[in-house]
Write a structure and sequence with these properties.
single chain; alpha+beta; four-stranded antiparallel β-sheet
Length: 148
């Protein structure tokens, strides 16, 4: 004679399932790897955003210095025109009138018409383009960013 499998009483099946799930602790290897993958992707995105913000902040500091140098250039030129003299000054004269903030170091080029600034670990090179007449203001430009 064969015995039929008896089903557990009504309350026993749910108790058995809850005991199995209650004893399970921790994560499976797949779950842990998925978490590591998600954390890696998130950190890559955040680091990329950080470096983009750092680049933008460094460029903004350099643009601020360039704007201050252009203002000082305009003042020096105006003083030359008032004295009825040709503008004969170098970038050292311009920089002497500018309060340099955010600049790590600076170095003048030959002739005093170029200036290399180190801002936030990046190098920026500014040029003073002198003019022949007294009425035209000499311009100051940055080498790597033509639209500044």
């Amino acid at each position: 004679m064969t015995k039929k499998a008896q089903s557990p009483p009504a309350g026993k099946a749910s108790e058995t399932r809850s005991i199995v799930t209650r004893d399970r602790a921790g994560f499976t290897l797949i779950e842990a790897l998925l978490m590591l993958l998600i954390l890696g992707l998130l950190s890559a995105v955040v680091l990329g955003l950080y470096f983009d913000l750092h680049q933008a902040a460094t460029d903004a500091s350099a643009r601020g210095i360039l704007g201050a140098m252009r203002d000082a250039n305009q003042l020096l030129h105006t003083e030359s025109v008032i004295r009825n003299q040709a503008p004969t000054y170098t970038l050292a004269d311009v920089v002497a009138r500018v309060e340099m903030r955010g600049c790590d170091s600076l170095r003048y080029g030959a002739g005093g018409y170029s200036l290399e600034l180190l801002v936030g670990g990046r190098s920026y090179t500014f040029y003073l383009h002198p003019t022949q007449g007294t009425l035209t203001v000499p311009s100051i430009t940055e080498l790597g960013h033509g639209n500044w």
